[in-house]
């Protein structure tokens, strides 16, 4: 339950990027020798569709079993050279499929027939693992009908402007995607959220209601956008019962491109920040190893340097340059070891900085004590866990370098998991 009223922003004050005319065209990254794609499903012995040596085409669905809904979309033509278990965030068990690429692309044609008549089933079957990774299953949930689709035109974290780049350069594909979504879902209320300074760039060009957000961080955080649209935040049941569904601009453009051309897009727009903070924009096949992008931009990785997927406030560190970019990777941030602020095991000194900075007025100094001890239910019931909009500002200012944001994410994940298990048991 959320207990406190929202909110009072205080310093420090950061601003989101605006996609400017100076933004360079993305560098097109050549097809790498191998790509690795994740199927968000545990690898079981019974999997019969994907074996080493299986030939695949560009745009082909890759599922562990032919009837499975969950799949990856092959971003290249080639041959499967490895199928292995992969441990994702929070211990989720996925399957990593590595494909050795062949020269040239042979497009898979299965989608072309489905593209003639947009439906939720075809969106879910073919588009859910495409660039931008649109979540389609919530739109099919009859217990929690969606009445508003929010097309997310900003990037939630600082520095990153890939969504704005897509908004600016792919208006036609976006409008086509919006039309497909309207047709497939029957939902008329589609809102595009953009920074308020750039509203005039999009008004009249995009076929949806434009909703501005202030450029000040963290107003583009999805939960903050949700609060500004509805006056509410989700509780432990998540966003589904609120009837609002978020899809990022790149995903909508992907949908538009796919249904206009009959082919599934396989390239992702990614911003790469080198150790000097210089931003490079790239277009790369989903599944391209991070190291390939870094090499293209001359970024050398040394021992103890840090590679982060996402932005400086809410991004997550990855452990190897060999890991691939996913359909939802908007940015890669590289930090030299000399500038990395280390987490510590210092205790909270009750300085109150986290409380003063929190835009949702969460009593963070008290909440963190419960979360550190794994007392998530108490943290939620007594200290407003569900008011948190996941901006990461508390971690940023914490003098004891406590990873508060990570504790909060873990707590919400664990509570959500417990609730799902209870609901399953009741059925
Ligand atoms: S991440 Fe921290 S600062 Fe941001 S809303 Fe949550 S508790 Fe407040
Ligand atoms: S900023 Fe860190 S040290 Fe200060 S009160 Fe918050 S958790 Fe404690």
Notable features of this structure?
binds iron/sulfur cluster; 13 helices; 427 residues; 3 domains; disordered N terminus; alpha/beta; globular; 4-stranded antiparallel sheet; 28% helix; 16 strands
Give a written overview of the molecule.
- With 427 residues, the chain is an alpha/beta fold.
- It folds into three domains: 244 residues, no CATH class; 72 residues; 74 residues, no CATH class.
- Helix content is 28%, strand content 19%.
- Helix 4 packs across helix 7, helix 10 runs antiparallel to helix 11 and helix 10 packs across helix 13.
- It is globular.
Largest sheet entry: 6 strands, mixed
- The Cα radius of gyration reads 21 Å
What oligomerization state is this entry in? single chain
Task: Give the class from helix and strand content and strand pairing.
Answer: alpha/beta
Q: What characteristic shape results from the CA principal axes? A: globular
The proportion of strand residues reads 15-25%
Number of helices: 13
Please state how the strands of the largest beta sheet are arranged side by side.
1-13-12-16-14-15
Whole-number tally of structural domains: 3
Q: Span from first to last CA?
A: 24 Å
Give the overall average pLDDT: 90
Q: What's the count of strands?
A: 16
């Amino acid at each position: 339950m959320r207990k406190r009223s929202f909110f009072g922003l205080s310093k420090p004050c950061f601003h989101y990027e605006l996609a400017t005319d100076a933004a360079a065209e993305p560098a097109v990254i050549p097809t790498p020798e191998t790509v690795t794609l994740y199927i968000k499903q545990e690898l079981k012995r019974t999997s019969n569709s994907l074996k080493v040596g299986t030939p695949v085409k560009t745009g082909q669905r890759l599922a562990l079993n032919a009837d499975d809904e969950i799949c990856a979309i092959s971003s290249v033509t080639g041959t499967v050279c490895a199928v292995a278990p992969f441990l994702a965030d929070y211990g989720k068990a996925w399957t990593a499929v590595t494909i050795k690429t062949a020269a040239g692309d042979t497009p898979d044609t299965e989608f072309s027939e489905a593209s003639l008549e947009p439906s939720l089933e075809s969106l879910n079957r073919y588009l859910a693992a495409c660039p931008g990774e649109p979540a389609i299953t919530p739109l099919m949930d009859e217990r929690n009908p969606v009445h508003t689709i929010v097309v997310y035109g900003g990037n939630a974290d600082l520095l990153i402007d890939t969504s704005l780049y897509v908004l600016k350069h792919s208006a036609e594909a976006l409008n086509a995607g919006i039309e497909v979504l309207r047709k497939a879902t029957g939902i008329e209320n589609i809102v595009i959220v953009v920074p308020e300074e750039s509203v005039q760039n999009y008004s009249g060009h995009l076929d949806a209601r434009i909703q501005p957000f202030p450029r000040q961080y963290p107003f583009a955080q999805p939960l903050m956008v949700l609060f500004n649209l509805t006056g509410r935040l989700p509780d432990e049941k998540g966003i589904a019962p609120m009837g609002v569904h978020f899809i990022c601009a790149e995903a909508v453009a992907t949908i538009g491109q796919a249904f206009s051309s009959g082919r599934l897009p396989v390239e992702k727009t990614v911003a790469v920040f080198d150790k000097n903070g210089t931003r490079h924009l790239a277009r790369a096949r989903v599944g391209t190893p991070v190291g390939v992008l870094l090499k293209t931009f001359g970024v050398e990785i040394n021992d103890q340097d840090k590679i982060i997927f996402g932005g400086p406030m809410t991004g997550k560190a990855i452990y190897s340059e060999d890991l691939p970019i996913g359909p939802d990777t908007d940015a890669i941030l590289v930090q030299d070891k000399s500038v990395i602020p280390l987490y510590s095991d210092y205790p909270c000194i009750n300085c109150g900085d986290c409380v003063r900075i929190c835009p949702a007025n969460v009593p963070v100094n008290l909440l963190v004590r419960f979360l550190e001890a794994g007392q998530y239910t108490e943290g939620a019931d007594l200290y407003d866990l569900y008011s948190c909009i996941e901006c990461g500002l508390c971690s940023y200012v914490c003098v004891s370098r406590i990873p508060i944001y990570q504790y909060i994410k873990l707590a919400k994940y664990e509570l959500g998991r417990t609730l799902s298990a209870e609901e399953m048991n009741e059925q």
